[in-house]
TrEMBL record:
It comes from Ceutorhynchus assimilis (cabbage seed weevil). The keyword Repressor does not apply. This is RING-type domain-containing protein. It comes from the Eukaryota. Transmembrane segments: none annotated. It holds the Pfam family zf-RING_2. Residues 22-62 form the RING-type domain.
Length: 120
């Protein structure tokens, strides 16, 4: 009985160590860690910042977040809160570029067709 309690303790310790790794770059977390506002998952500040430039959902649980909390890993004290450029706003900008591209392609196609018509 004593032995099983010991192994259970060791297991719990191992899983705790796992959660202290950044799941984006898989290295051990440093003194300051970053966490999405809406969940408690921890990442390196650099990793989460880079991630938030393309997506505003947590890499693990897929919850949307609009702010990144920077914490001291040991004390879990909040150091600062960073705003995130929301991914859906970036998508709207991309759509605008698409429309612009489409327009310039159509204009080019029309001028090609015009020259073709003249050839006939
Ligand atoms: Zn990382
Ligand atoms: Zn999460």
């Amino acid at each position: 009985m004593n032995q099983s309690t010991q192994s259970r303790k060791r297991k719990r310790k191992e899983s705790k160590l796992e959660t202290e790794k950044c799941s984006i770059c898989l290295t051990k977390l440093r003194k300051y860690v970053a966490s999405p506002k809406n969940c408690r998952h921890l990442f390196c500040l650099g990793c989460l910042k880079r991630w938030s430039r393309t997506q505003n959902t947590c890499p693990i649980c897929r919850r949307r977040f609009s702010r990144i909390e920077v914490l001291n890993q040991r004390s879990k004290k909040l150091v600062r809160v960073l705003p995130v450029a929301r991914a859906d706003q970036q998508n709207i900008q991309l759509n605008r570029i698409d429309v612009f591209l489409m327009l310039s392609i159509t204009t080019r196609l029309m001028s090609i067709m015009r020259t073709l018509l003249y050839d006939i």
